[in-house]
Design goal:
Blueprint: H1 2-75, H2 77-104, H3 112-148, H4 151-165, H5 168-179, H6 184-187, H7 193-216, H8 220-273, H9 277-280, H10 283-296, H11 307-326, H12 331-363, H13 369-387, H14 391-418, H15 427-430, H16 449-459
Helix pairs in contact: 1-2, 1-3, 1-13, 2-3, 2-13, 4-7, 4-8, 5-7, 5-8, 7-8, 8-10, 8-11, 8-12, 8-16, 10-11, 11-12, 11-14, 12-13, 12-14, 13-14
């Protein structure tokens, strides 16, 4: 009997121990899960902060570059040399930040430690770059403000606005003529420019009126901010109208590059077809078919064209064939072909980068960090390819630059399309952590240049002196 009782007690004890072990394991598993969720949340928060910092600092540096130009015009190069030096340092730091962001978004998986380190470094670099230019622009602000605190400055802005307004009808006529030659997709970057320019000029006139009221009320700093907003807006309006006039020249250059790339592609197709069937089968045959299709899809004589888009599609197919053939080509023949292709590839990269830069410069604040990162990386790749002495490396860099720039342009247009009810930020993707109050909601819809200008001015800190920028809509 005692043996049975003892055995029962042992079972009970063993069961209790086992239950304790299971319970402990469950607690540890829950704790590990909670820790993992906390780490994931922190990484997401840091990624959001890094994305917002990239946009904010990029805008701040761009506006500081504008300020440098204004300061040189008003005060001379000597007075602005400290800002010029600060901008050079800020650009270097921002370039490193964009490079890290590109690493975070490339095809190579990143560890949590890398994501934490790189996003933290992006935030740190952006803060450093921002501080460098903020200190120097603040030092120039009062000297420039003294120039703006006069009725003549307000009248000058009004005169400039009137002059630029006179350019709108010509831009509309140019755009109407372009519609007959280029597709809607090709014209998308400039199609709304005359309308956007008129809105900007209306805003500039209201800003000048506000500046006059603030000046009369002895509110010099507010008057400075309003005049500054008006002058920047007039300059952007003129840039939009110039972009319409320059579009055809850029399109003609792109068409010339496309013509060279078509001739190059046909030569590559002939060379690929001449290869032995055993070497061609598989990847090369598939690439040949892809390039043939890309050439067949080009618009015929008399049809509307999209030179930049066509360049992108033919280049991608051309590169695919080139990569497929490279593995079986003789080294000497390959080097000769690379040298022949390099000039066209560099020209294509310049066209793609220029098109992407135009979108970012025109629409400013609504364009998010992904598009800006791709563009910064494309510009870096293009600069390195242009300086590279090895033709093979230069060709690869030029093609990467063109691809990144095309991706940047597509991402920028995606951001513009998503900006419903702008201003306010980047929705869930980037937290919207740098919206602002005072601008009436609903006045700046998708792709609204006025919203982009105001966003850039606010993000860049140029309207900090104006207590209520809603006054500009009175």
């Amino acid at each position: 009997m005692e043996l049975i009782v003892g055995a029962g007690a042992a079972v009970v004890v063993a069961g209790t121990v086992l239950a304790g072990m299971v319970f402990g394991r469950g607690r540890r598993k829950q704790r590990r899960l909670a820790e993992a969720q906390a780490r994931a949340a922190e990484l997401e928060r840091l990624a959001t902060e890094a994305g917002s910092a990239l946009v904010r600092t990029d805008e701040r540096v761009r506006l500081a570059e504008d300020e440098l130009g204004f300061a040189v015009a008003q005060l001379g190069e000597r007075e602005a040399q400290d800002l010029a030096a600060a901008l050079q340092k800020a650009r270097a730091r921002l370039s490193e930040a964009f490079r890290l962001n590109q690493l975070l978004h490339d095809h190579v998986p990143d560890t949590d430690a890398q994501r934490l380190e790189w996003n933290s470094r992006i935030v740190e670099l952006c803060r450093s770059a921002d501080a460098a230019v903020t200190e120097q622009t603040a030092a120039l602000a009062e000297r420039r403000a003294a120039v703006r605190r006069t009725p003549s400055a307000i009248e000058q802005v009004r005169a400039e606005a009137e002059r630029v307004r006179g350019l709108v009808p010509e831009a509309r006529e140019t755009l109407a003529a372009l519609v007959d030659r280029y597709t809607d997709a090709a014209l998308q970057p400039v199609a709304a420019n005359p309308d956007q320019a008129e809105r900007l000029l209306q805003f500039a006139e209201r800003s000048a009126t506000v500046a006059g009221k603030k000046l009369a009320g002895d509110r010099g700093r507010d008057a400075d901010a309003a005049v500054q907003a008006a002058a920047e807006t007039v300059r952007r309006a003129e840039g939009l109208l110039e972009a319409v006039e320059q579009f055809e020249m850029e399109a003609l250059r792109a068409e010339s590059t496309l013509g060279a790339m078509i001739a190059e592609s046909r030569a590559e197709l002939a060379a690929a077809r001449a290869m032995p069937a055993t070497a061609r089968s598989g990847r090369i045959d598939a690439a040949v078919a892809g390039l043939e299709q890309a050439l067949a899809d080009l618009p015929g004589p008399g049809e509307r064209t999209d030179p930049i888009g066509s360049l992108t599609r033919v280049r991608q197919a051309n590169t695919a064939l080139d990569d497929a053939v490279a593995a079986v080509q003789e080294a000497g023949r390959r080097a000769e072909q690379v040298r022949a292709q390099l000039a066209t590839a560099l020209d294509d990269a310049h066209r793609q980068v220029s098109a992407a830069r135009q979108v970012v410069d025109d629409y400013r604040a609504p364009v998010g960090p992904d598009a800006r990162t791709r563009l910064a990386e494309a510009e870096r790749e293009l600069a390195e390819a242009s300086a590279e002495r090895d033709p093979e490396r230069a060709l690869g860099g030029a093609r990467r630059a063109a691809s990144l720039a095309a991706e940047a342009r597509a991402l920028a247009h995606r951001d513009l399309a998503r900006q419903q009810g702008y201003p306010g930020g980047y929705g869930g993707g980037y937290g919207g952590g740098y919206g602002w109050e005072g601008v009436p909601r609903g006045r700046s819809g998708s792709g609204d240049m006025l919203g982009g200008i105001l966003g850039g001015l606010v993000i860049g800190g140029m309207l900090d002196g104006l207590g209520d920028i809603g006054d500009l809509f009175d």
